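Comment thread on ticket #2218

A.B. wrote:
> Attaching the input chain for the structure job we discussed in standup.
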Amino acid sequence: MIGLKIKKEQSQSFLLWLNKARYTIIGREADKGLLFKFFIYLILLDTAYIYLKPILHMITTMVKDADDLLDPSVNWFPRTLYLGNLQEAWEWLKYPKAFSISLTLSLSVAILQTLSCAVTGYAFARLKVPFKRLMFFLLLLTFIVPMQVTILPNIIYARELGLLNTIYPIIVPAFFGLGLKGALFVIIYRQFFSTQPKELEEAARIDGANVFKIFYKVMMPLAKPAILVVFLFSFVWTWNDFYLPSMYLSDIETAPLSMGISRIASALRQQAEQYGPSVNDEAIRMATTFMMIIPPMLLYTFTQRWFVEGVERTGLVE
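C.D. wrote:
> Ran it. Output below, let me know if you need it in another format.
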């Protein structure tokens, strides 16, 4: 009897251990077990590899010298760190001046669009404006009309006003929230302001605040997540934009980094056609691309936590 009791207790403890192991691996719920976490981490690692591989390839290629570039056995880790490609790309890009132009252009457009689209988005979300639905419908139409349709009249106006080869034809429309980017940012603000409780505005009106004071004193402090999202989107979008600068800025002295990369690629192509391809051409292209993307990457590195929170709170994930 004692032996049967011991065997029964051992079988019960084994079953308890088995259930515990099963709950640990699979989980009581579908998203709590180790098996589910393993697949999630596997998907995340695969996705990270897809995005990080081009960047790692770019970094390793730009620091290779001619011997490492010609050696097929050297793939990811060069034998020596060669910074001559970076130096040559720095000189070809005229990096300090091109960087200052890109930074001035991107910051100006981002700040102006952040403010102007906030006013428009608040008006669409909260104010009773005549023909508001019609105007919002017209705003949505800007997603359909491509930029190439309206660029020619804008170039003609800029030439008549003497604004060609300046950044003003790109900055001034941002003050009015024009274009595809402006429409998107207005919708982001409208979505955010629509979710705020109306009791805040009613309490401010009782205290004697008008519409402008309610907007700047009550709603704008609450809109910090949306402001950050719009600012980062606008900054990176303008920083990477090649089309508008190529239309308005034909002078090489006023070219931002986005145009410099294209001009270096064209120069390398012409040089290869005339004198034959060089082994360092690919490394120079990688170096120019790296110098182009490093400022937005640093900006996102320091603001990613607030950016993700802002995307969640503005409803972009829905």
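A.B. wrote:
> Thanks. Noting for the ticket: Residues 1-8 have pLDDT under 50 and may be disordered.
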